[in-house]
Amino acid sequence: MEEIIRKADILIEALPYIQKFYGKIVVIKYGGAAMTSEEIRAGTLQDIVFMNFIGMHPILVHGGGPLITRKMHEMGKAPQFLDGIRITDKETIKIVKKVLKSINNELISEIISMGSKAKGLGGRKKNIFKIKKKNTKIDVGNVGVVAEVDIKPIKRLLKKKIIPVIMPLSIGEDGQLYNINADEVAFSLAQALCAEKLVLLTNVKGILANKDDEASLIHTLHTKEAQDLIHRDVIQHGMIPKVKACVKALNSGVVKTHIIDGRIAHSVLLEIFTDEGVGTEIIKGKISK
Length: 289
Description:
Elements: H1 2-20, E1 25-30, H2 38-53, E2 57-62, H3 65-74, E3 81-82, E4 85-86, H4 90-113, E5 117-121, E6 129-133, E7 143-149, H5 152-159, E8 162-166, E9 169-171, E10 177-180, H6 182-192, E11 197-202, E12 220-222, H7 223-231, H8 239-251, E13 256-261, H9 267-273, E14 280-283
Parallel strand pairs: 1-2, 1-11, 2-8, 5-8, 7-10, 11-13, 12-14
Antiparallel strand pairs: 3-4, 6-7, 9-10, 13-14
Helix pairs in contact: 3-4, 6-8, 7-8
C-alpha cells in the first residue's frame, strides 16, 4: 500500500507541471553516452512519448559523435578536431551522413513502436535549415552553422502530434552536405520556435560547483551567474558551449533551459515534472520552476 501511495504522490507532484506545459514546445538535444545504452535510450524515448501523449510538443534533436568516431576507427580513418570541431573532409561527411541517418531511422522506429508518430528532418533535399560554412582560421571542411530555420514543416508535424526527430545535417546552397553541431541546432530550433524549454542531455550530472564532487551539483543558475562561472573556470571544456547555448536561448525568448545527465533513467521527466529535478536549470530571471 505504501508503494501505491508513493506512486500516487509522484503523479500529484507532476500534475501542476503537466497543466503548465500543456501545448508548449520543448526542444531536447540527445547524444553522447546515453545513446549507446539501449535501456537508457528506451527510457529517454519513453519520456518524449509521454510528453507527446499529455499534450506537450517535444522535438528531438540527436547527435552521434561517439558513434561517428567509432565508425571512423572501424574504417581506418583517424578523427581530427580543431577546438572541439570535427574536421569533416569529403570522406568524413559520407561517414557522418551514414551514421546519423542510421541513428535517425532507429529513433523513429523506436518512437513508433511506443505508440507515437515520428518523422525525420534534416539532411534531406527539403531543408529546414539555411546554413553557411563555418568560418575558422583553419578550414574544417564540410562544417556549417545555422543561419536560418524554416519552422513551417516542424509546425505542421507538431499540429498532427508527430514528433520531429532532427539530425544535424543540411545541404547548403552550394549543394554540399554540411555537418552542424547538434547543440547549435537545438538552440536554433528553440529560438526560432519560441520554445518553453531547451533540454540538453549530457554525460555528467549537470553543472558542478566543484568538478571533483558530484554532490556539489548546482540545481539553479541565473545567466549572469553562469557567465561568471565560465570566467572563473568553474565551468570548463565541453560544458562551456552548452552553457553558452543555454544563455543565448534565454536571451532569445526561451523560457527555461536545462542541462541534465542523460545516463539517468527517465531524466527528462524527472527534471521537468518534479520540484527538485535531477540536473541544472539555467534561467534568465528569478522565476519559479
